[in-house]
Amino acid sequence: MNASKLILTSALLALTADGLTSTALNAQCTQTRQRNWNAQFAWDDDVAFKRSFVFVNPQAYDIQVCDIAVKLANGGCSGATVRMEVRPDNDGGSPNQGSVLGRSAPLSIPDNVGTVRASFSNLILGAGERYQVVLDYGTSNACGGFPSTNYIKKPTAPSGNSVESYYFTEQSGFQFWLRDDQPIRYQVNYAPNVRGISQPFGASCGASAPCSSSAFREVNWNGNPLSGQTQSNARRAFRVRDDFGYPTRDVCSIEFRSAAVGAAPVDLAVAIYDEGGTLPRQVLAETTVSVSPGAPQVVRASFPTPARINAGTNYWVSLEPLNGGRILRPIEQFGNPIDDALWSGSAWTAGSGNDAYAFRTFTTTGPATRPTHSATAPLLGATQTMRLRTAGNGARAVLLIGVTNPDLDLGPLGAAGCRALSSGDIGLDASANSAGSANVRYTIPNDLALLGAEFYGQFAVLSSANSLGLLFTNGTRNVVGSF
Known about the structure:
Shape: rod-shaped
CATH topology of the largest domain: Jelly Rolls
Mean pLDDT: 88
Distance between the termini: 19 Å
Strand content: 35-45%
Number of strands: 36
C-alpha cells in the first residue's frame, strides 16, 4: 500500500475516533472466488478417476479457505462419492504428489446436478500462490459395466472461461496426469488471514521529580574546619556506604564544602559511580560546577539526570578539577574516615581511607516521570486501544499516528534524550487520570484494502521538563490484520 493510501487510512482512523463506527469483519467466508458458477451444466462423462484444477490465491495477503464447492452429478453411479484435496502447485503443472494441505471426507455426489461442498479448517493459502484442487472419485466412477458403463459427469459448463485443469489416467500400465483445460464450475469461499500486530519499539524519555530541599543523608557534616589539603589535575572519589538498608532512590544533588585555590574560580567535574567490587565502576550521573575562591563555601552539584541507587548498594562520588585548577579537598579535620579511591588514568586504585570527607546527599521527591505506550492489535472493523501510562497526574498528551517512523533526535530542539518515532500525520488528544494513564480508542475501517497497512503510534506529553515542553513515549509499529 502506498503512502497516500496510508495517509487516507490515518484520516479514517481520526474519523472513527470521533465516533464513526463500522461493522466488525466476520472472520469466516466473507470473500468468494468463483468461475463459471452460474453457467449451465455440460453433462459430459468424466472417464478419469481423478481430476484437478488450478486455483490461484487472488489476494496480496494470505487467506484461510473455509470451503470449496463444485457442480457434479453421479451419472447413474448411485452412491458415488468424491474426496477433495488441496495440494501445492510447486512446479506449475500437474498436482504435486507430495504434501496434502487439506483433505475432505468422502462427499456424496447427487443423482442430478448439484453442489458438492467440502469444508476445511486451518487451510491457509499464501498470497498469490498456485494450488491444485483434486477431485478423487476413487472406485466410484465407471459403474454398470460394459457396454452400458455410466460415468460421473465432469464439473464443467458447456462453454465459458477455461480453467487450467488435469485428469489422471493409466496407459500401458503407467499412471500419469494429462493437461485438459476445461470450463470448470467452482467456488472458493475464504477469509483474510493477516495477523494484526502492535509492537512497542524504541525508548521513552523522562523527567525527574523535583529534588528535595531536605538532605537525605549527612556524613561528617559538622562544620569543623577543613583539613587544608588541596587537589589539582587528579580525579578522586569517596565512597557513600549503605549501612542502614536504604530503599532504592534517585540521587539528584551532592553538597560539600570547598574553595578554589588562587584568585580565579575553578571548574570542577562531579560524577556519581556505581560500585564494582570495592571501587568505582560506571558513571551513573555527572555534572560540572564552579568553585569560587576565598573562604570555604557550600558547593552544590545538581545532576540533570539523577543517579538511580538501588536498595542496599554503595556508590561513589568523584571530584576532578579541570583546566589545571586547584581546590581545597572537602575533608574536615575531625570526623569519621571514609573509603576513597584515585583514578590513575586507566583504572581506579584504593586510597588511604583515612580522610573524613564531609558531604550530604539529596534525592528526588518521587519517582521519575517516564511515559510509556502500548496498544492492542489493529483489526479490520474492530476497536484499537492506544494506551498511555506513567505520564503523570492529569497530564495532557497528543497521540501521534503516522505512516512512517522518522526516528528523529529531538535533542537539538530542546528535548534531550527524546526521539520522534511517528511522523504524526494526525493527532488525537488524550488526558491522563490521577495515575497518569489514558486510553485512546478508535475503530479500524472495515476495508479489505487496509489489510497489511502499517502505521506508527507515539504519545507526546506536555511537560516543563525541557525547553521543548514535551516528553515522548516509546513508539508502536502497527500492522492492520484480520485476526
